[in-house]
Amino acid sequence: MTGAEFLGRMRERVTFEAFTGLDDGLGGVTRGWRRVANGWAAIEMVAVKEETVAQQHARAIRYRLVARKPPGLNPGWRVRWRNRLLGITALADVDGRPELVLLQAREETVS
User: Fold this and answer.
1) CA angle 87, 19, 23 (to 5 degrees)
2) 68 DSSP β-pair partners
3) Which of 43, 83, 91, 111 is the most buried (most CB within 10 A)?
C-alpha cells in the first residue's frame, strides 16, 4: 500500500496499545497493556507461514497497515483489530504524508 492505494481504504477501526505500568489501586503498579489511541486503518494480509514451535503446529499471519500516526508510536506497541492482536514488527513513514504510518505486524495470541 503506497500513495493513492490506501486513500479511501482506511475503513477498519483499530486501537493502539502500549505495555506500561498500571495503577493497581493499592499504591502499587502492575504491568499490562493500556489503550493509547483509536483510529482508522487500511489493513491487508501479506503472508501466512506455517511453522512448528515446541512441537506445536502454528500459522504466522503477517499484515500491512496504513494508519494515522498516534503520538509516541513505537515498535513495542500492538494493534487491536476486530478479535485480533497484531504485534508491530516495523514502522515506516508514508512518502508525502507525515500524519500517516506504514506498519508491518504479526498476529499474536489474545491475552
Assistant:
1) 155
2) 100
3) 43
- Residue pair 48/58 in contact by the 8 Å Cβ criterion: no
Q: Distance (Å, rounded) from C-alpha 1 to C-alpha 38?
A: 21
Q: What is the pTM of this model?
A: 0.80
As a three-state string, the secondary structure of 34-73 is EEEEEEEEEEEEEEEEEEEECCEEEEEEEEEEEEECCCCC
Cα–chain-centroid distance for residue 95?
Answer: 20
Place of cell 489501586: 25
Phi, psi torsion values for 20, nearest 5 degrees? -140, 175
The tens digit of pLDDT for each residue in 81-102 reads 999 999 999 999 998 899 999 9
User: How far apart are the C-alpha atoms of 61 and 77, rounded to whole Å?
Assistant: 17
Integer-rounded Cα Rg, in Å, for the chain is 16
Block residue for cell numbers 497497515: 65
